[in-house]
């Protein structure tokens, strides 16, 4: 019985560690890597505006 409980506790620790790693990755690494490219948005707005004007 104690072996089953220790296995469950070990799996819970691994699961919690994985969630913490995902949260830290989302908070820090995605801000550095995935900066929004404002040039693409600016180009899209400029190309769409003349088409939509009356």
Put simply, the count of helices is 2
Question: How much is the average pLDDT?
Answer: 77
The tally of beta strands, per DSSP, is 0
| Residues in helices, as a percent range | over 70%
Give the low-confidence spans: none
Round the Cα radius of gyration to an integer and report it: 24 Å
Distance between the termini: 76 Å
If you had to describe this structure to a student in words, what would you say it looks like?
Helix content is 87%, strand content 0%. It is mainly alpha-helical and 54 residues long. The model has no long low-confidence stretch (mean pLDDT 77).
Short characterization:
With 54 residues, this protein is mainly α. The protein has two helices and no strands.
Keywords:
0% strand; 54 residues; 2 helices; rod-shaped; mainly alpha
Give the helix/strand layout.
Elements: H1 2-33, H2 38-52
């Amino acid at each position: 019985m104690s072996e089953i409980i220790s296995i469950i506790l070990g799996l819970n620790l691994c699961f919690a560690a994985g969630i913490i790693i995902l949260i830290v990755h989302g908070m820090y690494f995605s801000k550095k890597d995935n900066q929004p490219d404002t040039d693409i948005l600016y180009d899209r707005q400029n190309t769409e505006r003349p088409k939509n004007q009356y």
